[in-house]
Design goal:
Blueprint lengths: L4 H23 L10 H22 L5 H30 L3 H7 L9 H24 L9
Helix pairs in contact: 1-2, 1-3, 2-3, 2-5, 3-5
Amino acid sequence: MNRFVLSVRFGIALTSSLIAYFLVLSLFNLHINPLFSIFNGVITGFAIFESIRYKRIEKKSEYNYTTGFQAGIVTGFLATILFTLFMAVYATEIDPDFISKIAENFFKSYNTGVGVFAFTVLLSGLATTIVLTLSFMQLFKHKLKE
């Protein structure tokens, strides 16, 4: 199997899960409450954990720290980029007042553009990916015993 296929599959599944969670929250008008974005970390953590775990099972004796780390990073980075694109489209096309509704929770006179919003989503996703991948690699740093 190609070295990125598993990670790409998990990345797309992660993106779909994050988008579905966001849209369910938006049905109940809870998507403007930043507290609910904490669960994004749980969803992301599960996908990265499973990506590394499956890579370890797939590679068996050829598994090493680098292959596991690579699986987690590719999964998280791909999902982050795709989710950032979705959020940019959502904030500009679907709900143009979304950014001002979120900023209203923090500052009354703060004017944020779509670029700053998308950059913030991207940075938080990349940081979450790196931290979770490094954390999970402490569990999966050794080969499976045969």
